[in-house]
Specification:
Immunoglobulin-like; seven-stranded mixed β-sheet; single chain; mainly beta
Length: 226
Amino acid sequence: MRALLMGVATLAALSAEAGSYSVTPVTVELSADRKVADVVVQNRGSAKLTIEARTFAWKQSGDSDELSPTREVMAFPPIFALAPGESQVVRVGVRGALPTSEEAAYRLQLDEIPGDVAPGTVGVTVRQILPVFTAPRGLQPSAIEARVDSTDNVELFNPGRMRVRVLALRWYDAAGKMVSERVDPFYLLPGTRRSVALPKLPPYQKNEKRTLKAHTPEGERAIAIR
């Protein structure tokens, strides 16, 4: 019997390890000044591994991520073997022109190809998925907009031209005290929306000021509530 273990790389880290191999870095940034980037895959196990590298265009629709095979961004070599302790550099690069108006998003998917498994044992394979971004020069993170309904669900909107990575959402009261938090990291790609259910807020007076902030890798950012 074979089982598939899908391990998505921890995006906040500089490197990720899942199962018997590690990957560094876990986010790939491409630009006009850097059209090719190196991703290092290392076999940390005791058995030979075979890894397949594939690239996908990444779109968001509602709260869902949509991946489709692409040749706009390529990974080489597409398949490689690693002896125990061995490393392989996977080169990730842009084919053709870079986007001129807003950042484009992709995913690099690394799949361990199952080897022979002895009868009566379980073969476990590992998948790691890394975000890849290509951007024109001069982009700056934009403000995040939000709409809050009567149940304190929040619909977030990124009106800007580059992604926003939200590590946590936090409510603050008029005194600046955090009264509610939701920790569940996600990306908000340019022009996309996402609904998030915040934890229940404590009782508050009518018209009492509340401030919603996003905790991002760049620090806390106030969210404009429409």
